[in-house]
Design a protein that fits this description.
Layout lengths: L1 H20 L4 H20 L7 H10 L1 H10 L1 E5 L4 E7 L11 E8 L2 E9 L1
Antiparallel strand pairs: 1-2, 2-3, 3-4
Helix pairs in contact: 2-3, 2-4
């Protein structure tokens, strides 16, 4: 009985350590979210431009480091050791009609991300 409890404790401790080690970093989230935003801009915004689509897509690719920095500045991370929750809000400093504020919530764990809420306000 005592041996089985020790064995269960070791397994639970090992699983917790594995989850903690595989909890993705803020830097990994920044790259993940930057890739999603860049893809959205290229597929949704740039494709709506006649004649300027290639220039727009090139601009988005060249701006990836800046996009990631903007995401990082506008993200709060709640780290629970086993997983993290990231809350990002992207908006313009001065609201422009037709350009929404984007709010996203993402959970990170086991070296993966899952965006479970993405809303345009």
């Amino acid at each position: 009985m005592k041996t089985s409890l020790i064995g269960i404790g070791i397994v639970v401790l090992g699983a917790g350590m594995a989850l903690g080690v595989t909890n993705p970093s803020r830097e990994q989230y920044r790259v993940y979210a930057g890739e999603i935003l860049a893809t959205h801009l290229k597929e949704e915004v740039c494709t709506g431009l006649r004649g300027g689509q290639d220039l727009c897509q090139s601009f988005v690719e060249e701006s990836r480091p800046q996009i990631e920095q903007i995401i990082d500045r506008n993200t709060n991370r709640d780290n629970f050791f086993l997983f993290s929750i990231y809350r990002t809000e992207l908006s313009l400093p001065i609201p422009i009609p037709g350009i929404p504020t984007i709010q996203a919530e993402t959970i990170g764990g086991l070296t993966q991300f899952y965006t479970y809420e993405l809303e345009e306000i």
